[in-house]
Design a protein that fits this description.
Helix content of chain B: over 70%
Distance between the termini of chain A: 55 Å
Largest interface: A-B, 90 and 93 residues
Largest sheet of chain A: 2 strands, antiparallel
Radius of gyration of chain A: 25 Å
Number of helices of chain A: 13
CATH superfamily of chain B: MetI-like
Strand order of the largest sheet of chain A: 1-2
CATH architecture of chain B: Orthogonal Bundle
CATH topology of chain B: MetI-like fold
Radius of gyration of chain B: 26 Å
CATH architecture of chain A: Orthogonal Bundle
Largest sheet of chain B: none
Number of strands of chain B: 0
CATH class of chain B: Mainly Alpha
Oligomer: heterodimer
CATH class of chain A: Mainly Alpha
Structural class of chain A: mainly alpha
Amino acid sequence: MYGLVIATRPSRASLNESVAKAVLLSACIVVVAAMGALLFYLAIEGTRLIFADHINPFVFLFHTTFDPDSREPGAFVFIAGSIFVTLFAICVGGPFGVAVGIFFSELAPPRVSALIKPAIEVLVGIPSVVYGWLGLTLLAPLVRTYLGSQTGFGLLTAGVVLSVMILPTVISLSEDALAAVQTPLKEGSMALGATRWQTIYRVILPAARSGLTVAVILGIARAIGEALAVQMVIGNSAVLPRGLLNPTATLTTEIVTDMGSAQPGTILQHALFSMAFLLLLIAMALIVFVRVALRRQV
Amino acid sequence: MTAAAHPARFRTSQSIAAQRRFADRLATVILWGCALAIVVLLAFFVGYILYLGLPTISWHFLTAPPSEVEAGGGIGPEIFNSFYILILTLIFTVPTAMAAGIFLQEYARPGVFTTTVQFCAESLATIPSIVMGLFGLIVFVSLLRWHFSAIGGALTLTILNLPALMRVTQEALSSVPNAFREGSMALGATRWQTIVRVVLPSAIPPLTTGVILIAGRIFGETAALIYTAGVSVSPGKSAFDWGLFHPAETLSVHLWYTHSEGLIPDGAQVGNGTALVLLVVVLLFNFSARILGRWLSRRLTGA
């Protein structure tokens, strides 16, 4: 009697258990498969430029003339544009974001945190087109009026919009990094007579170095991948910018601008897919950097 | 050599201390300033969008179909499409992401498989949404020949948002104390029973908050939808087009399209109104996430 109960009950539970585990496991496999498919299809479409059109990858990467109709799909302008706006965003938004991260982890009274944190969540939630729209209707006219730019569209406008857009990423990640610094380290510094700022500057920031690196890298990832907000304010002309006020284009904005009119099978379409593939490789490289930075922490 | 014997040096160390105090105060002021600037910035954004958009908002604008060339078009179908694609995306994303998150948090042991899944999730989370849009274009639009469709857009957004929701699930589960699990297992429950009956119920408040916040992000997503769900709505009188395989331009895509490619003379007004509706919906999502999360945690875990 007892033997029967013991023999049947657990077996049903353990059947459920293994079914559940298999279902959960298959969801993980979906994630891996999605990434695999993404890599596979973009690699195929992204290398047609080389293997089907026989364009030298060197031309794609380093030539400044983008004229796919005459077999000259040089994407250097877009690559440079992406690097410029990203650098701008990280130089402006990075320190600002880290400063707010320091504020949350070291200074903010809980009540103030409870007030400001929801604001940051809203900033995350604002769609990128709305940021673009703000740049378009608010920032561009200002740049036009006060800085003497002809259109108001260009590197500066795009960079400022991006700086705001990467803030939430940098803030929350740097706050996490700073909060992870152990209290005895801070107390030790204070006990030696250091002021709060000295403690932050000399002890906490160096201790949180790898976490802050991660915050900056993921800020870069966000900036380099943003498409629409930048496309709406950068001016979209395929020339190297001579100054901050000049219009230019980036990898993402070029894809958005021309994909709609690119006929399947043309060099233009293949070049745009190559740019997407390049962006994919950059994103994965950044993730590898993040992993390296985090491993160094331990 | 005491400090008193060298007054000059003594003064210096005093002035250094004063300098340090000054630097400390200055840093405090600057850090507070940065944090307050965020709030001011947000308030300004919201105020400005309200100021721009409110004159456009009318019942006609919110319900009428968009216009391609003439003035006076509305955003009715776009509002519907945005919610339709959001719901479709959540139907695909929530179960998959939760299952994967539960597996990683409750079952997975460190190893090659776990590392692979995590690496894939992190990569997916970092991939620009426009790149995801082109993947959708390759697979759903061209390969499967669905053309621009609501379902293609929703599936693209699913892949885009899986990692974020997995992260939310994992964090929600990790907030449940281990003692709960141990207690349940000690009573003879299996791991799965423990998860369903003990762990998940306690993780519901953070899960709900997280899902609603991600829903807000899905609602505003644009770049991944332009070349998957398309920039047009089905012609017809009704704003409600349930067709899974019909093109389904959303609000945010409409805002972009009006600016970049649109021909309508009142593009600025339509854009202002659309931006306002987008912002209001996102704010609603944020508030409801917060309120619902707090209410649930009081109901489920509180006294």
